[in-house]
Design brief:
With 220 residues, this protein is mainly alpha-helical. The protein has a single domain, classed as Rhopdopsin 7-helix transmembrane proteins (Up-down Bundle), CATH 1.20.1070. Helix content is 80%, strand content 0%. The chain has helices spanning 3-28, 32-54, 57-87, 94-113, 121-145, 149-168, 185-216. The longest helix has 32 residues, at 185-216. It is globular. Keywords: Membrane, Transmembrane, Transmembrane helix. The chain crosses the membrane at residues 33-53, 65-86, 98-116, 123-140, 146-169, 181-202.
């Protein structure tokens, strides 16, 4: 195994670990939208890892489909709704959670199979991620408002890095991408997503604790 493949595999493993750890942590909080989405990302990364190691076509197709799901709907829509539990007090029922995933998976099949989506698809991904970035700016501002500056900075960095990855994904090729060991697109993308999931969890925790402590205060 050459150094480039090794670093790619390590980046995949980092995202798998991040997705599994924070996915189960969110499930413990009974936030099934964020928990399942983190696990979907972990499963996608695990198949990417299998592909890099074995060149398996099946693993590639699974990872490609789940990547499309997360870029198009999982992160920009499902994650926003999941985070709204602490920003807006909105927590849908389990049946609505399930329905959202069913609809999003069905829509993903349309994204990758419909011929009319071939040309606009890259722009669709960027547009959806840009909506998500706007929400993250709001999320960071909420953290600033409660004095959680470190967590706000983490969310802001995750937003900038995620938007950069989304913007260059289908439009720009990093010079030397085929040979760069560390500064290649997939290592940067996988590492960014791993960092992003961790910031979701810790930022969420700050606002959740604030909400819980406010609920315990006696009414005046």
């Amino acid at each position: 195994m050459d150094a480039r493949t090794l670093v790619l595999c390590l980046a995949c493993f980092l995202l798998v670990l991040s997705g599994v750890v924070y996915g189960f942590k969110f499930l413990k909080k009974r936030n099934y939208l964020l928990g399942v989405e983190c696990l979907v990302i972990a499963f996608s990364a695990s198949n990417a890892l299998i592909f890099f190691l074995t060149n398996s076509g099946i693993a590639y197709e699974i990872s490609h489909f789940l990547d499309a799901f997360s870029r198009g709907f999982g992160v920009p829509i499902i994650s926003i709704i999941g985070l709204m539990a602490v920003t807006h007090g909105y927590k849908p029922s389990k049946s609505k959670d399930f329905l959202m995933f069913v609809v999003a998976f069905a829509a993903t099949f349309v994204l990758i199979l419909a011929s009319f989506m071939v040309k606009p698809l890259p722009y669709f991904y960027v547009a959806m991620w840009s909506i998500f970035s706007v929400y993250l700016l709001y999320f960071a501002s909420r953290l600033v408002g409660v004095g959680a500056y470190l967590q706000a900075l983490g969310i802001f960095i995750a937003m900038l890095a995620g938007q950069a990855i989304a913007s260059i994904y289908d439009f720009y090729k990093i010079p030397g991408d085929e040979t760069n060991v560390v500064l290649n697109f997939y290592v940067l993308a996988l590492s960014t997503w791993a960092f992003m999931l961790s910031q979701f969890y810790y930022g969420y925790g700050v606002l959740e604790r604030l909400k819980s402590s406010s609920a315990l205060l006696p009414a005046r």
